[in-house]
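> tool_call: predict_assembly(chains=two)
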Amino acid sequence: IAGITQAPTSQILAAGRRMTLRCTQDMRHNAMYWYRQDLGLGLRLIHYSNTAGTTGKGEVPDGYSVSRANTDDFPLTLASAVPSQTSVYFCASSDSGNNEQFFGPGTRLTVL
Amino acid sequence: GQNIDQPTEMTATEGAIVQINCTYQTSGFNGLFWYQQHAGEAPTFLSYNVLDGLEEKGRFSSFLSRSKGYSYLLLKELQMKDSASYLCAVVDSNYQLIWGAGTKLIIKP
């Protein structure tokens, strides 16, 4: 692994289904983030984690949950997907809050 | 509320110079980032300003005025590969990034 990876690359999901988006980084960064990007709205923060074992809510947390059991992994779970969660999801990591964020390649999610 | 404003779209000619502006109103300020994002790809870091003034990095420069809540990204000697969206983001008092919607830059031959 080099940098930050996400899986799956894309997914089509039926409404009401549960889905976990995976994110792994090998840079030993303390902080990790989940964003969604929708046309015309820019990146919006869903959840973040400043260090392993802690998480926090971002701007648009409803319908999503995260966990940070270790430094490397930061999965995002949609408990019961809805069509409004159709978006491109980016995971990112950084050394600290005001340091450069490195982004994964993104997951394109469609909820029907 | 917190707000980052950038033009939605700009067009420029190959070889020319373009300036992309960003104005912000945020709860606190701990720095400003510019990222580049090509269509279908992830954002990548371009520059970071925390003090007033101009930071130059090759063909790209970024300027910050904290008193005016204003920044710009200057791209010189434009190349076709510079066609992308340019995202302005401010680090607020909680050390969270507040993102603008991005400026789509179209380069014409």
